[in-house]
Protein: N-succinylarginine dihydrolase
Organism: Kushneria konosiri
Amino acid sequence: MDKTLEINFDGLVGPTHNYAGLAQGNLASKRHAGLISNPREAALQGLEKMKASADAGFPQAVLPPQQRPDMGLLHRLGYRGAPEDVLPRVGSEAPELLYAACSAAAMWTANAATITPSRDTLDSRVHITPANMQSALHRSIEASQTARTLQAIFRDERHFAHHSALPSTPWFSDEGAANHTRLCAHHGGPGVHLFVHGDPAPDTLAAPKHHRPRQTLRACRALARQHGLSDQQTVFAQQHPEAIDAGVFHNDVICVGNGPVLLYHERAFFDERAVLEALRDRLAARAEGQPLIPVRVPEEAVTLEAAVASYLFNSQLLSREDGSMTLVVPGECESDESVWMTIQNLLLGGNNPISEVVVRDVKQSMRNGGGPACLRLRVVLNEAERQAMSGQVMLDDALYQDLTAWVERHYRDRLTLEDLADPQLAHESLAALDELTTLLKLGSIYPFQLEPGTG
């Protein structure tokens, strides 16, 4: 019996969760810039989403937040001293640097890495590459901590192969699994990997006019080479330029795949027909003859604007044991009549395995442009690989209760942008993270733990 499972690793929202509007091309982030955030509510909403998934029988794990404020970044930029000396000064002189150093955006672990299951790799190990996130300062500082965290959990070299992040340049801009989808007959079977990028095709001038693409074709091809994927296992697709300009900064804002199902908007891909043909051919050859099940949402049903506002496609599509699928959508989908009607009539009423739609409240994340799919990193593991994991990161009732109590102890329920300059917030954050690594049994993974004085 196949014991291979897909585990969703959700990011714990960090204590400095705020609305600074830092994300270029992310309309929700810009629209809510300056609002007062509630880190406690954000973290509890994330935990409630995880617990509901675990209770429904879907394997669920957690990834810890990153150390914020990132004093190492501020030190590299010439601000010397302890938080009491540095944070008020940066807040006064260069608030945009303070916002970047305090960003909690690593909560969206779909951007953490690209991961290939052992079933698809030449050496039968799980291959992991942290994303360089080079397109924005506040995300570019994540890669080194992402690598340390993933290496702490997946440390057994017999089962896991870790690669360095791609060179941090525009040529190799990489934003992780938010632009990568694995299609297959079932999680334990061979898969086909869809990599989506924003580079215009050589024979066209099709490029976004307003927003810069964040994933390059060079990065996608480099990831495939790192992980030993052949041409027969991969499809490289250009994201539709109109989608990027409409606020689709990652492919997972306009498309979600699971098993043989690809749920996507009409304008997700620049050359829709070619993408579908390539996926059909690869699946037929590689995935036990499994036919592709495309679920296309036309523009006349849901406009691009409505898709971005509701985050319909930034949903989780989860496999049940009987072969049916559950779609986990943000609460905003209920608020748009066209989106909700499409869910009821086209998705639930269509010829596809989607048999259930579940609504989750992740408003604190949604205001920064992150829905259910942004909050999770999908990792397919067989039984031996699950046994080889380190730490205590699989969510069960006991861990949920411990993490909920931990949030209640350490998180503020109100945070303004001005509060980010408060040195006390920095000390509160380090105390929280120090306790968290004990709860998760990960050992020392943060700079302040590895190099005392870097807090």
User: Anything to note?
Assistant: The mean pLDDT is 92. The chain has one domain: 5-68+103-450. The chain has 18 helices and 15 strands. The first strand starts at residue 5 and ends at 11.
